Inverse folding.
């Protein structure tokens, strides 16, 4: 087993002290390692010009904006926290990410999509995503004890940012989960992987989405996160307060939730135009 360098060990300790999730820690370590490999030197011997050249290289490779900004977060952490530089982190520029409207399914499309999933486990898990607005990382880590049928709540542990929250437990979802439980008898994890000791891996649900999208004949590109977007949009269209939706989604900022107002087409179409308040007749020119 390769020995961990003192610099890498220090970065791991810094991330652990700040309670960064294991996935985030691994992502940050990979980003710094990628920078080091690109120049063939230890990252503590690189300066801002080197980091800028590395960013230019990444953009040229066609890396996505979210992936670019994840690397920026990692480098800012490494240079600001682990190396203790005061000015370097703020000069590592984020990529300006284009703001695209999320893909949202209609109610009929949700039914067609979910019914096209042949696996009972994957269908139930993705139904739970839509019913409760969960992230894929949250649904696969649900435990049987997280389903509180007495209070009609689902406990979500260690969501994004390490935060716990509660979401609603739909009566229809409860019936579906009870049927699923009777047929599969999961023990600890609600959606176990190949054995009962480990949870389902997210890639299983990603693959199920791709297959179901094709089987249902949907022209839209549907991912697990599409169901979360659809959950929020349908709630908004049905009159739910955007601040309640923010809590259910686990958003730290209301601005993240407010973008669903741009795709809530039912709400938009039902909003009267100021023209409707005028008594105006368009008379053809004489």
């Amino acid at each position: 087993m390769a020995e961990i360098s003192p610099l890498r060990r220090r970065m791991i300790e810094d991330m652990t002290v700040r309670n960064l999730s294991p996935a985030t820690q691994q992502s940050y370590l990979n980003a710094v390692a990628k920078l080091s490999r690109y120049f063939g030197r230890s990252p503590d011997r690189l300066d801002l010009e080197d980091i800028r050249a590395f960013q230019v290289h990444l953009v040229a490779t066609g890396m996505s904006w979210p992936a670019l900004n994840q690397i920026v977060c990692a480098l800012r952490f490494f240079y600001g926290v682990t190396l203790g530089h005061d000015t370097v982190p703020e000069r590592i520029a984020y990529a300006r990410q284009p703001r695209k409207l999320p893909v949202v399914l209609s109610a009929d499309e949700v039914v067609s999509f979910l019914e096209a999933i042949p696996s009972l486990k994957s269908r139930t898990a993705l139904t739970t995503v839509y019913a409760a607005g969960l992230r894929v990382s949250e649904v696969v880590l649900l435990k049987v004890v997280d389903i509180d049928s007495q209070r009609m709540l689902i406990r979500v542990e260690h969501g994004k940012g390490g935060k716990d929250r509660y979401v609603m437990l739909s009566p229809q979802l409860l019936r579906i989960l009870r049927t699923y439980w009777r047929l599969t008898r999961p023990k600890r994890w609600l959606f176990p992987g190949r054995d009962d000791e480990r949870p389902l891996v997210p890639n299983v649900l990603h693959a199920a989405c791709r297959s179901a999208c094709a089987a249902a004949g949907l022209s839209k590109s549907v991912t697990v996160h599409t169901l979360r977007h659809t959950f929020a949009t349908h709630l908004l269209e049905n009159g739910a307060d955007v601040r309640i939706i923010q809590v259910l989604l686990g958003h730290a900022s209301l601005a993240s939730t407010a973008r669903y107002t741009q795709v809530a087409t039912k709400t938009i179409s039902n909003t009267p135009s100021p023209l409707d308040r005028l008594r105006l007749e368009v008379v053809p020119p004489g």
Observations:
- The longest helix spans residues 22-39.
- The domain at 6-91 is CATH 1.10.150.130 (DNA polymerase; domain 1).
